[in-house]
UniProtKB/TrEMBL annotation:
It comes from mine drainage metagenome. Gene3D superfamilies: ACP-like. Pfam families: PP-binding. This is Acyl carrier protein. Residues 1-80 form the Carrier domain.
Length: 83
């Protein structure tokens, strides 16, 4: 899975977690919790959705690494590359 596909997957999952969000306006480097008013349950649902979409499990200790779109992409790319 290349970075473009990973980014599209992250945005798709984010759209499922927060369907009211205009994904075109999401700043990929800004914290999603602040930018989109996501709470801890939303981040948990994001982690679950990413796992379902990619097969990459995100343990709770790594949730801080997936709070931006860029962070999600980097985390998933590294995990996929190491398999």
């Amino acid at each position: 899975m290349d970075e473009t596909t990973i980014r599209a997957t992250v945005l798709r999952v984010l759209g499922e977690v927060a369907p009211e969000v205009d994904l075109a306006g999401v700043d990929p480097g800004e914290d999603l919790r602040d930018q989109l008013d996501l709470d801890s349950m939303d981040i948990l649902n994001l982690a679950i959705g990413l796992y379902q979409a990619t097969g990459v499990e995100v343990p709770e200790r790594d949730y801080v690494r997936i709070v931006t779109v860029d962070g999600c992409v980097a985390y998933l790319a590294a995990a996929i590359a190491s398999t």
